[in-house]
Structures are given as structure tokens and as C-alpha cells.
Write a structure and sequence with these properties.
Strand order of the largest sheet of chain A: 4-3-8-7
CATH topology of chain A: Ubiquitin-like (UB roll)
CATH superfamily of chain A: Phosphoribosyl-AMP cyclohydrolase
Largest sheet of chain A: 4 strands, mixed
Strand content of chain A: 25-35%
Number of domains of chain A: 1
Shape of chain A: globular
Oligomer: homodimer
Number of strands of chain A: 9
Largest interface: A-B, 53 and 54 residues
Number of helices of chain A: 3
Chain lengths: 147, 147
């Protein structure tokens, strides 16, 4: 029963597991060579900065565990781990505002990613293009002392 | 003794305090109206994305508590909280690779900042221009289905 075997195999690689803090997270399929370079926080997450690939706009900051990063690397669409809802979310599944992946880079100490994307419509749930559009803080501008 | 009073006042506003987890952090001088909008993690920190103001390069991801954000907003140079060394660090004080602040924006849910800066030299301690230059991950490129 070749079909049956394939189905069993598929089930076995997509099953959920329990993390140490009791939340259900996906069985990580992430390349072990990448997984070994991640420095996760105490919830198993790394920060993921989504950046519009051509304009350079920083769109939003999300969070990824190993499985979310695996899905992002392999499906062409950003998948995050929602800390508030404790579930995976594919950006755009509800809003249509997909993030099509262009490239993914890990930082020097393994705790942050830059995901360059092509953002459809608004990245922010408020309808703004980016999550950083609405609240610009008053700041002193710095500059080198004149020499 | 006017000088004496001024000195006492200065001491009183720059004293250290103990946070709930026992680490020593600065007495936060941050504008209460901004502090009220921050959604800090369980260590009292928000993520701070440093971005080169003109090219749009994402340079690095650091962490700020209230005091680090206050210093960043008021001194014109980025100050972070080092999670590994448990101390404030002014970017460039050791390396000369200052980050001169151009603007600071808080995101829609208050847990991330974009700090646009003029980066002197390398942002990364490895000597790379950004912390995301060295480890580009293999990723499937996504695109909308042809309609």
C-alpha cells in the first residue's frame, strides 16, 4: 500500500509536539545546520524583522520558532508564531496582505532574522503600511562634533 | 549653596534602582507618556531595530529598557541594554562606530522600535557593515499565483 505508507510518513512529519512550557508547537522540520545556529529566547523564539525588499521599509517585527522559520524558508510566505494567540499565523491568510519572501538572513549572534519580502498592501493590522508609521517619538538628532 | 543643591538633584535623578529580577537598572527618566505605551518583555525590554537612515539597511537588533530609550531620545546616540553583560552600552564608545540618531518610532503594539541612524563604520562587532551580512539562509522565493 504505497499510498498508505506515504500518508503515514506525512502524518509523522507534521505532527504537533508539546514544548517545555506546555504550548503546542509544530514538530520542527528546520534544517539542523540552521537550527544549531539559532539563539532562542526562553520561549524558543527569535525576532524576525520584515523589510520591504525594494524600498527598504521596515514593515513589522514578528517572532519565529524553528517551525515558523522552516515554513517561511520553504513556502515563500512568512509564517510567524503569535505570542498572544499561541499559534502559527501565515501573514495574509486573514487579511490578504501576504508577505512574499525574497530572502532571509540570520544575524551574527543567531537571535534575529531579517526577512526581505514583497508586502501586499498594509503590513500593519491598523491599515498602515508599516507598524512604525503612527508613533514617531520626539528625539534629539545626533551628529559628530565639528572637527 | 546652590552648587551643592544642584549636585544633589543630579545624583537623585541618575541613581540606580533594583528591578524586580534583581538586576541593577537606571532610574528611568523616560517621558511617562511614552513609558505608558511600551509593552516590555518579562525583562523590561523592547526590541530596537537600528536602520541606516538613508540607505535603509537594517544594521542590527538591540534591546532597550526605559532608561536606554530615554538616553537614545535625548543624547543623539543609541544606547542599548546588554542582556549578556547586564549593563548599558553606548554604541561606539568602545569601537568608535557610533550610531547618530535621526529618528525613533514605536510600533503599533509598543514592543518594538525602529531607530534610524547614521552609522559610523561597521555596525557589527565582526567588522561587517550589518549584523545580517554573513549568514543568508537558503529560501524559496514566494510570488503570487499567476491570474
Amino acid at each position: 500500500m504505497v499510498g498508505g505508507i506515504a500518508t503515514l510518513a506525512e502524518v509523522s512529519v507534521t505532527r504537533d509536539r508539546r514544548s517545555t512550557n506546555g504550548t503546542t508547537i509544530g514538530e520542527a522540520m528546520l534544517d539542523p545546520a540552521i537550527a544549531a545556529r539559532l539563539k532562542r529566547d526562553d520561549k524558543g523564539l527569535v525576532a524576525a524583522i520584515a523589510q520591504q525588499y525594494d524600498t527598504g521599509e521596515v514593515l513589522m517585527l514578528g517572532w519565529m520558532d524553528d517551525e515558523a522559520l522552516h515554513r517561511t524558508l520553504t513556502t515563500g510566505r512568512c509564517t510567524y508564531w503569535s505570542r498572544s494567540r499561541q499559534e502559527y499565523w501565515v501573514k495574509g491568510d486573514t487579511s490578504g496582505h501576504y508577505q512574499w519572501v525574497k530572502s532571509v538572513a540570520l544575524d551574527c549572534d543567531g537571535d534575529a532574522l531579517v526577512v526581505k519580502v514583497d508586502q501586499v498592501g498594509a503590513a500593519c493590522h491598523t491599515g498602515d503600511r508599516t507598524c512604525f508609521d503612527a508613533d514617531v517619538l520626539e528625539a534629539v538628532s545626533g551628529q559628530p562634533a565639528a572637527s
